[in-house]
Amino acid sequence: MDPTMTAALREVLRKPLDNLTGDDFKSFKHLLRDQGQITWGKLEKADINDTVDLMVQVYTKGAGDVMLTILKKMNQNQLAMDLEKDLEELGGQQCSPGLVRGDGGVKVDITADSEGMVDASALSGGSPTPQQGGDDNAAEEVKKKKTSLKLKLREHLKKRFSFVHEESGVSTVQDIYTELHIVEGRTDGVNSTHEVSAINMSQIGRGPSSEDKQVKLANMFTDGSATKVLTMGVAGVGKTVAVQKFVMDWVEEKANQDIDFVFVLPFRELNLKKGERFNLPQLLQLFYPNLEDLENVLDLSECKIIFVLDGLDESKLELDFGNWICKLGEESSVDMLITSLIRGMLLSSALLWVTTRPAAASQIPEECSYLLTEVRGFNDPQKIEFFQNNIKNPEKAERIIDHIKENRSLHIMCHIPVFCRIIANVLKKILEDQSKKESPKTLTALYTWYSVFQIKSINDKYPEDKKMSAKEKGDLLVKLGKLAFKHLEKGTLIFYEKDLEECNIDVDCGALKAGVCTQIFNLESASTGEDMFSFVHLSVQEFLAALYVLHEGVLRANPFPKNWKEKTSWRFSHSRFDLFKMAVDKALQSQNGHFDLLVRFLLGLAPMLEPEIRSPLKEVLPQLAIREVSIEKTVQYIKKKIREDISPERTINLFHCLNELGDNSLVEEINRYRNSADEEKNLTPAQCSALAYLLLMSA
What are the residues whose beta carbons fall under 8 Å from the beta carbon of 235, sequence distance 6 or more? Predict the structure, then answer.
């Protein structure tokens, strides 16, 4: 290019950059790097003059088009208009549609001979040449291939996402799906509190708010305002089922038909490929093997794509947001591929939907500009709708709904869809068998019945000679409990074969492979072929962990040892009260309450295992039924702790523990106090927490 022309072009390109703020200029450089021709190493410390020099050196006459594209992408429309006018005056540099790719990038053919010059016919807008006629045929061929790949993808997704496994059989997600309560924004900041504790606290004084902006699942991306969405919600609240519903609506052409391809990449499956290297098309080919030769058939940048990254909280990948790649064909670790997608640097035209539990949401830097949404599960009308949809007998459904309304602790938990499924499962069985006693009123009683019902049903699917004995069923419960406890301490919800083997669980055990434990423990096959395991909900994992702790205590093993000496001395002298006391102390030492529900379950098991009480657990674990003077001592110890200076969240959980133990004396005391005429007397912190508990249980 003529030196005079080059100098004039530099001057024209410098003007819009001079008008950008520091942050906008940094964004400009990031987007320039995304064009794939200039590395970040050259751009990171480049000032305005350096940046202009690099653009002219690499793109020569195409530099104007590149800058126009980036300014428009940044919504710097006035600067883009001024630049376009300056380029026209300069001559031959007007924005050429033929240069712009579907993702907003610019097609530039850079060779040593051409010095980066573009095809003149692309700039002239003249009549089609024979070459262009050939391009039309090629475009038609690409369209056919895209349609073929889309049909194959729909077929794959339908097989993978259309069904939900229930105890009664397999149902389609479209048949059983109940609309979820999803709102824009989040309830509060990053919250690492135990999710059940957070649920309890959030129910105090909360009612429907007119300020909550409702989000319809099918409309998240349709208004064009959001290209990246981060959806948060506690475990079991329905995030993954929402993904299934979103996918199936696209597959069945009910929503989002402007999207060409939907690629779901669950983190629990991506974990299996940690450390391996692929480029993005190769990774997609691995997860969607029926999309043959995807890398060579389709230019992904020309397609409208959504990536659904489900379960960020389950990720074991090293997400380093300070490093990324931007070229589709560039190979890197799975960790960096996913980081680059989330950051929006790789295939920047793609839509992104990330789901996670709240505590993991902070992994994504704020500058990634995600629209925040929160799944709050079911509101009260949706709870009723769920039971009416899932219990076909209207009379039984009504009785179950009435029972839940009468038991506040169950009613609170019912905003979580998985919990609704658990309670429907238990109460339906109890209503079917008139010989059973009254319906469970505490959380521990509910989970005890649920676990025993599921473990006893194993034999229903086995021939007579392969049926499991009561002892074998009890042993399986304890082994699952060990797995639950060990990984609860680590904060792990997803397990792989080696994790089961470490807890002496046979991965080829018929009870697991046949799917008869699917209501307790899920076996899932990844797209890549490996097996993954999980408990159906965090609360089920915590109940089984509590069962394991109690079992270890009976065997004189200390599940909470601080050191070798403590572990050894425990074997010679301890009582069940010592176990309960140690568990309460451990829960109180946790700042985020991650052992709250485990302790609640552990203490709730005590009255159920008294010799005179008929408990379903005694059929499979009779060794747990030992009379000890532990309940009253534990009650007194908890009351002592409540009067100490501990957080309201921990105090409220201790009130829940007293309720599980059958003691409501402190609550009755504060109720009498509340109804007394002496309104001027100040409440102690413990009484304030008791009042909060009363509000929670009577709201």
Answer: 195, 357, 418, 493, 537, 538
Are the C-beta atoms of residues 130 and 210 closer than 8 Å to each other?
no
* Spatial contact of 41 and 325, defined as CB atoms under 8 Å apart: no
Tokens of 210: 């007119």
Q: Which CATH architecture has domain 152-377?
A: 3-Layer(aba) Sandwich (3.40)
Which CATH architecture is the domain 3-123 placed in?
Orthogonal Bundle (1.10)
The H or E element that residue 352 is part of is strand 351-356
Contact 266, 315 (CB under 8 A): no
* Residue extents of the structural domains in the chain: 3-123, 152-377, 391-436
Q: What angle do CA 379, 394, 536 make, to 5 degrees?
A: 50
Q: Please state, in angstroms and rounded to a whole number, the distance separating the CA atoms of residues 59 and 57.
A: 6
Q: CB of 245 within 8 A of CB of 217?
A: yes
Query: The tokens of 688 are what?
Result: 């304030």
CB 635, CB 651: distance < 8 Å: no
**Could you tell me how many helices (H) and strands (E) the chain has, helices first?**
32, 13
Q: Are 277 and 344 in contact (CB under 8 A)?
A: no
First to last CA, the chain: 77
| CA angle, 384 then 386 then 391, to 5° | 100
Tokens of 312: 């960020």
Q: What percent of the chain has pLDDT over 70?
A: 76
Within 13 Å of residue 215, how many CA atoms lie on the same side as its CB?
Answer: 25
CB 444, CB 662: distance < 8 Å: no
**Token pair 């839509």 in the structure block, residue:** 351
How far apart CA 2 and CA 6 sit, in angstroms, is 6
Nearest to 505 by CA among 531, 476, 526: 476
Q: Nearest-CA neighbor of 457 among 166, 220, 150, 82?
A: 166
pLDDT 10s digits, 128-148:
444 455 556 767 777 888 888
Model's pTM, two decimal places? 0.68
10 Å CB burial of residue 405 (0-12, 13-18, 19+) is middle
Compute CA 546 distance to the chain's CA centroid, rounded to the nearest angstrom: 25
Q: Which residues contact 380 (CB under 8 A, 6 or more apart)?
A: none
pLDDT tens digits, 484-524: 999 888 878 888 888 988 999 887 766 665 444 556 777 67
At 184-222, the pLDDT tens digits run 886 544 444 455 555 554 544 444 455 678 888 888 887
CA 118, 122, 123 angle in degrees (round to 5)?
85
| Alpha helix ranges (H) inside 255-332 | 267-270, 280-287, 294-297
Distance CA 17, CA 24 (A): 9
| Pairing state between β 332-333 and 277-278 | antiparallel
Tell me the C-alpha distance between 597 and 588, whole Å: 12
How big is the CA angle at 214 (ends 210 and 215), to the nearest 5 degrees? 170
